[in-house]
Amino acid sequence: MCRYGNSFFKTGPELKEKGTKSSIAVFLAALLVYLLTVAAVSVYSYWNARTAMLKEIDQNLLIGASTVKYILTPGFHDRAVTESAIPPEEDRRNILALTQFADRAGYKFLYTVVRRNGLVFITASSATEAELESEQEVRYFEPYAEASQALKAAFDADGPVYTTYSDRWGRFRAVILPEYSPAGNRYLSVAEFEIGFVQSVLRGKLVESMIITGGLLAGSLPLFLYFLRREKAYNEALIDANRRLRDELEDRKRMEAERVQFQEQIRRAQKLEAVGTMAGGIAHDFNNMLSIILGYTELAMNQIPPESKPYGQLGEVMTAGNRARDLVRQILTFSRKSEAGFQPVGMQQIVAEGAKMLRSALPSTIDLQVRLHTDDAVFGDPTQIHQVLMNLATNAGHAMQGRAGELVIQLETVMIDSERPLPAPELSPGPHVCLTVRDTGQGMDSKTLDRIFDPFFTTKDPGEGTGLGLSVVHGIIQSHGGAVHVVSRPKEGTEFTVYFPAMTHPPGLEKRPELPLPSGTATILLVDDEPALLKMAKQTLESLGYRVEAVTRGPEALDLFASNPDRYDLVITDMTMPRMTGKELAARLIRIRSDIPVILCTGYGGMERDEDSHKTEAVRMVLTKPVSKKQMAWKVREILDVSECR
After folding, report:
1. Which of 398, 346, 394, 390 is closest to 372 using CA atoms?
2. Which of 75, 405, 428, 605 could bond to 332 as cystine, CB 3.0-4.6 Å?
3. CATH class entry, domain 242-297+519-646
4. How confident is the model over 290-296, as a mean pLDDT?
5. 65-195 adopts what CATH topology?
């Protein structure tokens, strides 16, 4: 070693000596790892093989123990508990049966044990060939003095007891199965298997595992030393690669966030598509029921004075029924992402009507305050906007359930411009009608707030919510070009603020005078497979002066029409019917008479918007149930007038 100033430099021999010591240390460390690995793998293989073998043996033993009761003579155990002896011929038959089963199944012993007066007795057991050949009478009603502790304790066990023991005959694995006789007496069924050979098999497995593991590790030892020498070079390469990957990491994170956002949008779209499919499936039957309710209500209203109290009550039924009809249509419209029937809507009227319904629905402990500061209108679907209000207010009522609270519904016009920060980035500058629903309920934490618009997400108990309400509300607001802003804190309440673009000079809000319903004397063939709906529609058309013949089946209508084609001026048929659909019926009618007009009625909402795809040479018009008397009157008159002009 030489010295130069304050620095020390190792000479060549010193560096070589250090390298040699390092190599020896690395070799010894590798050897130690080698030996420990061989031992660990071998022990693991041994216990794994032992566990697998014992598990298989235990399964076979449990089958044998469970079968014993079916081999012995009926009532054997009840007599063994109460009597001091069993007839020799029965005893001999049981021993022979157990022995034959044990020999076939490979068991060493099969026997049963009872307990009488605190002592353990073996009552029936398989025998050896020598015992059977000697034909000695084998009796097992002397106390079993050599009974193991496991055998005695098994009488109080809840399930099978597994035990391994050694005696002068060898090493055995036994399953002791506690059971009850038909009379309720406790006894044990025991199956034993000689496992002396298992030790030799496991020792062979251990040696085999050690040889294989040792050979594999010995062959890989040079590679281990080689890679150890190259460790420094590899580390430097990894550091350089990490340096290059670090620059790509931020880009990948950004791309992953965009991918997750895109997948979330797809997931929401798929869930809403599922809602649309489900809604379409129930729309037909639901609209048929609504048609009956609204039709008969309208017929009843035509028969009583408008100033009477029942007339007003039936009017409320009509209003609720029309709301239900429009609700089904708007759910189908929303789920299909198609454009709804937008029109100028007076927001003050929507809020006032909703507040009237809420006052009767909310508990008296909730103070409902309605503040109307604007009469501006918006361009939208009144049913959808009404649903937004009712959903938000109903949720607010649930948030205050069981305690006193305050629910505020406020309507005002605000100007969104550069001086007022945008509450949502999707809003455009200009006047907006602002609907605020604020409660003093339990509020929400930030984690819940982030998911409230997810389809099927709900914080309500099972059976109390579907998780679709706010998701539908969010979709309605977006389809109206608006936005929603939510503020909530736990135990401080929640505030929903909905923004709709305002109409400064809305056309179409003025009331138009009601014209008398058109009528006629034409003959109409009416077809529908719902008898109640058919009867109601027939009465409605007859009240307008038409002659109506009604049938419930397409083939029946076809035969009736074929018998006198010139008798009928119009055919009105349901779309979905058994044996023959309305579309098929129309196609066959036109073959008989080419100029017969057909109106197709359907309970599947939204088909009016796809009317062109359902029209044929015969189908002149498609109507969606429920059809009001007013709508039916004008549509029938329209088709008949066109037909008369041809």
Report:
1. 346
2. 605
3. alpha beta
4. 84
5. Beta-Lactamase (3.30.450)
